[in-house]
Task: structure prediction
Amino acid sequence: MKKILILFALTAVLMPLHAQKITRADKERAEGLVRQMTLEEKVNFIAGAVDGFHTYAIDRLGIPSVRMCDGPQGVRNNTKSTLFPCGVAAAASWNRDAVRAMGRGIAMDAKARGVGIMLGPGVNIYRSAVNGRNFEYFGEDPYLASETASQYIQGMQGEGVMATIKHFALNNSEYGRHWTSSVVDERTMNEIYFPTFRKAVEEARVGAVMTSYNMVNGMHAPENPWLIRETLRGRWGFEGLVMSDWTSTYSTLGCIKGGLDLEMPRNYVYRYDIIKEMIDNGVIAESEIDEKVQHILQAFIAFGFLDRPLQDTTVPEDNEASRQAAYELSLEAPVLLKNNGALPLPAGRKNRVLLIGPMADVMPCGGGSGEVHPFENRSITMRQGFQALGKNRPFDCVTEGYDTPTAISLMDNAYAVVVAVGYGKKTEKENSDRTFTLPEGQDELIELALKHNSRVVVVVVSGGEVDMSRWHDRVSAILYAWYDGQDLGTAVAKILSGEVNPSGRLPMTFWGTQEKNPAFNYYQPTMTALKNTTSERHKERFSRYEYAEYREGIFLGYRGIDHFGVKPLYAFGHGLSYTRFDHNGLTAKPEGEGVKVEVIVRNIGEVAGSDVVQVYVSPINPEVIRPVRELKGYQKIDLEKGIAKTARILLPKSAFMYYDVESHEWKHQHGRYKVQIGASADKILCETEVIL
Ligand code: BGC
Result:
């Protein structure tokens, strides 16, 4: 980590940093420009231009065309660039510094290519394992997701590149994303689905927000004034620009009134002829268009887009600082789920390993707009990672013909078989959900390995839980590697060999079966909307709309464990290490408006390792129904063998609050709370009480 901090510090000295806070002066300058623009220029300016990944330039006023690129794990769109660990891997690292470095690294890659706006991070909450885009997002918990997003955005925007938080809101499924209405109650939205967006606005001052494809409580997101005007701008104070997701706009008037500033990728509804007619006929006022131009311009001005070239030619496209950030994060993200002692694999010529499976020699990435193409010579597959371990780590690698005599004999004779399974851009991707079971033939491969070897280690590449029921109990170890970026192979090899001690923790709960997930019965859209309408036109237009009712409410993920009395296979926060940690001396004392938590963590095992101190708050006698406990703080701590350190975590007053639907505000209940340290959400190691 030190190395990247030095690299970034150097670039920070060389590059002026641009403020992201929109100042009074920025607003006034934008107002001045708006006054000079013709109506036609204004209308052109509020929709995407060129190739659908640029804004419209107005040269005579010095307003450039700003390039934007996907996506959350590196710079996509007609370029090769550093492939960072995917979103869920970033969250699984529970490491704020490493995530912030990722944001910076992506920003540098963006600047090197003249990209002013990055279309990430994606922060929709994990509701089901099968959502095709889980890999891009930050897991099931609003606190972990919001901390991760905030660090990512601050890292990115600190380099002068605007981040876009997406998809606002409730785009938790890829199935039917264009014609599903997410139906969610107010408390659930505010406690589970909004906090990440809110922190991005209030703390990280994100420059742009992208609306979602789905409708929110019956209204398309970019046309939804409650969402954009009342919540995002009114309650959270957002002053940047709101853009639509690509082709998700349905009506000119709806988008104008709803609060959408920038229609992407082009002007389907924000068209000059339509808007001019509306103004001429008094349907809308020109000032309503001015407002949108103003939002976009004031954000551009705050980021310096009008005052400097967007391309920074001093930053190489293939940048060492970015690579280093991707690499360091990749070591922190994999989660060791299970280990009966087979790991770490021993070195030595006698201990020849067989690496086998569809993920063994590929550079996997989830598909769709989140897919990034790394430079070939920079991406390390698992086979290459094993090779780099050196001669004392002999291994064979088989990537097809698993049941041939050669492969079987290698399985029979290996010290251990590492089966690398998972999805990829064709099987886990945007615009469709994936299967819960692994792609065809992969369960069978693990079962075959189990027949021929007593030490089977499974490495899973995915954006979330997969069905492990056929082999979970019989394999010796399981490592979840996610889409760990271009250094996936190095990270996996180093962890399996013990060179690196795994320190990732699950950012979601693994239920074991899909049915145990509290959201299971409500995940798929259930009812055809407006089915009782009498209008033929409405019937035709809306008969495709369905409701996805979030009836599990606030009891999503681990919040549902006690509430519904279901026992998961592995709860949120779970993750093994090659060492052991002891936690003692926990104290929680009111400090200022919040509570200061301290706990001593000691590495009592044989090797160095990193612990994630997870702080949960559990209200005693709550006045309304609440989850038994919720994550409200965490800290990752590196500990040499035998060493103890004190973790200090300040819980703000908001950590004890719930959303009150009567007052439409967050409410604090005076009373007693347990403060708990958990190895995961269902395994509490020690606890104390505090009155607040
Ligand atoms: C995705 C967005 C993405 C956009 C541009 C859409 O299909 O939902 O996340 O930023 O395309 O590629």
Remarks:
- Residues 70-71, 119, 166, 245-246, 369, 430 surround beta-D-glucopyranose (CB under 6 Å).
- Residues 43 and 176 are 31 Å apart (CA to CA).
- Confidence is low (pLDDT under 50) at residues 8-19, 527-531.
